Protein 1
Amino acid sequence: MKGDIAVDTEAMGLNNKRDRLCVVQLSDGNGDAHLVQLSHDNYKAPNLIKVLSDPARVKIFHFARFDLSIMRCYLGISLTNVYCTRTASRLVRTYTDRHGYKDICRELLGVEISKQQQSSDWGAKTLSPEQVEYAASDVLHLHKLREKLNEMLSREGRTELAQACFNFLPFRAELDLAGWENEDIFAHS
């Protein structure tokens, strides 16, 4: 696998300190997805960590804040050179409050995504075919979404702002893990 990679995670829930990381999905943008299922008692995944830790590769996420945080917590890695389609969407699709993966795939790519397996048991010893299909679908469209969102960011003059946000995401994940997940530390209060 060479070049930029799309990345997503599946966990037992959305609390990265309580709910364990179960699956990491990767795609190089060529229509294939690779799933790495992690055991609850062994988070050693040297090949996965090597790919994700490569600073030359852009790692494309949807809601990178969560994925970066849970991978930091369970795999012990802090990723750099990230792109987040949700963050890009929020910066450029200001005409809507619908920034979920399913919503932006539908609008920007004309692709319907099923989220039926999102709340399933990702900690099971064997994943169902439906879970595998769902997990793969979460990374297969991220490269194309990035292209569409980059066009919109450029058109609206927000490319540099988006990049600054992407650069901050690893630090935002660290803040989440350090206990500031529900607090806006920049707010005047």
Protein 2
Amino acid sequence: MLQKNRLKALAAGAAMSLVLYPATASAWSLEEAAEPYAGTTIDVVFLLRPGYEAAKEMIPEFEEKTGITVNVTDMPYENALGEQVRDFVAGGDLDIALIDLVWIGNFAENEWIVPAEKFMNDPELADPELDLEDFFPLTLDAFGSWDGRVYGLPFDNYSGLLFYNSCMLEEAGFDGPPETWGELKDEYGPSLTQDGQHAFALQSKRNETQSADSFARMIWPFGGSFLDEEFRSNLTSEESLTGLEFRQDLMQYMPEGIVAYDHAEAVNALAQGDVAMITEWSSFYPTLANPETSAIVDCLGVAPEPEGPAGRKPALGGFSLAVASQADEEEQAAAWLFIQWITSKENAKQYLDLGGVPARQSVYEMEGVAEEHPFVPALVESWQEGVPEFRPRFAEWPQITEIVQEWGTRMMLGEVSVEEGASEISERMEAVLEEAGYYDGDKPLLQ
């Protein structure tokens, strides 16, 4: 893969942007930069998740400093892609794009978003303290870049973690969480599944949750992947099939109806003591640690996701904010000032304390942060060792995820065997990629 080359290109771009305006560094301020755009309104989509609630608490400060109004439309994740695509196709009102890491190819190739260099190279708009190198390289590459260019800055960033009920584990005779997936199934599973309780819940609802949180989470630790180096399906490989068979075996230690569990159901099952462990995004820590929403606050433990035969391959997810090309010049400038501010080093600690998960390395190096936020050590480890292509980031992913959702769900329900389901996904996925031109040289294999 081109991961190393992409990171070198991003680092070079960051260094270049930092030397373009050294003379103005000491004079720049957000208030002065925003003066020409006071009275401008910028529109953005937010999700119904803790990181966005944190940002909304911070927005009044930005509005007071700048005179720019940030108009937020809240919606569930399942609606966010379609609503934004319709807005961009129609030339609508959105000034900022909220981009899941698997949407960025679609947004960039359709030119719905503006490369960030336009703003980073403008000394009137570029905060000298932006410091792209302070973002975890994995997050800047996966969430904000495409084809060697930075489009968006990481915002609302996730790593998969193992959340567990330490009291349930201790009562069952365990002195800590499992280190491997094999231990979770073979040792913890039987001991913790009894009296109406279950050892584990794997959110697997038929939407992107099935593709990312269930299907992808199981193939990587076992050495599998969606695609091989030739961009052909790797889902029928021994490693991928082993991971998917493992998921089927693990279901005996999960609640009935697990295929209907989305994030809310999995988190609530742990929070109410119905299951002992879940693998979930780091952003749900505030929910599990809040006594108003969780009955296990005093028993809540956090660890990295378990290792598989191929090592520790934690889930990777998250979003970036990018400037929409359909916005006029004033709206674009105002949008960039907001994106730069909400993802800044200066605001990272406040965002973290309010329930967000910033991608800034510096905030996690602050004294006392790991003690205040116990999920931090596992989070940092995962971002240092994560899988950049946890889900393929090409523009055709929205089509392919529909295929994975259908056949991944049918596997779990026992309607088809793992081998049959993997073969169906492989055939249909390659048909999408062939039609898109990946196999005849019209498109490069990896961005």
Protein 3
Amino acid sequence: MRYNDSDLKTQFNMTSIAPHHKAKALKSGSRRPAKELCSECGLCDTYYIHYVKEACAFLNQQIAELEAEFHGLSRNLEDENQLYFGVHQKMLAARKKQPIEGAQWTGIVSAIACEMLTQGKVEGVVCVQNTPEDRFQPQPILATTTAEILAARVNKPTLSPNLSILEQIERSGMRRILAIGVGCQIQALRAVEKQLGLEKLYVLGTPCVDNVTREGLQKFLETTSKSPETVVHYEFMQDFQVHFKHIDGSIEKVPFFGLKTNQLKDVFAPSCMTCFDYVNSLADLVVGYMGAPFGWQWLVVRNDTGQEMLDLVWSQLDTQPVSSSGNRHQAVQQSIPAYDQGVTLPMWAAKLMGVVIEKIGPKGLEYARFSIDSHFTRNYLYVKRNYPEKLAQHVPPYAQKIVSQYRLPE
């Protein structure tokens, strides 16, 4: 849906000249300006909703402009690494020498956040714990102790209103903040950053794709895992399997190609199906896994602020250069109609295909490109079919170039 100025001013009682503190936040359950494309980032739960028309990633795609503002330049579309991974100073693979117990990986994100706080770089950290009742229900907090930060370790694969913390930051009087978040949250945060009155904002990002509502997550778990009630966390890994970690520490592996796609096609949030910022382009530092060898983390330093954060934990890390091998194109091209038609292989065939692709398929940065290509082609088709009027403006030039490598169904 498109919104013009009069629509927003009438529906949300906003004007272009009113300061944000005079804008009213939407009540819980109210219709969001982005409607069904809302990613529940939390901005509209605050009076910063005054800026939603400019800030929301699903109403105003502006990654190139914000890259130039916060990184000093927009990505070079002729440089394949920038085309795919955004503006960056360096990429590397790393892991903590002494992993943090209970972390989803080795705990690099938690370690950086703790060091930022204990060394006085920041006064508070925006991160996401879970509610006492539900380990997968996100609960954003403004952490002021390392215990609160460590209580937020492990990803919550559900839509999370991280930016609902913005009013609390303003009330706290804190001037130096670290925010941890995913692409849609960070784009909105960057768009309102100047309005926050902060002395310094550090942004630590994670790559993000295919989030779900809490109900959608339950359907995914029940459809995919043998023991959904004991899953602690899961990840789509470089060996082309979904790894579920259970309460007892055991790891359950399910091949990508054995997922019940026909039952899961509608489980992902529409915002995720229309997102083209898998790699969190506007964060200062990004910590993920998809561009690194199995068991390592992929770190993308985008600017000097990102390097400043990484320096705090450098002595705690083992590192190695990123690498790339294999060719993704055939696998991506074959995956497009398979997903589009909801094809699910018998488990024996899915396991066999997974073993073959793991041995001869894309690895390292080429695996990351495979994942980006697969999701961008899928999402491009989704936007084209469901929001054709948004296609030209909403799909960034870098995503259009990536998608143009493939033959897409109508």
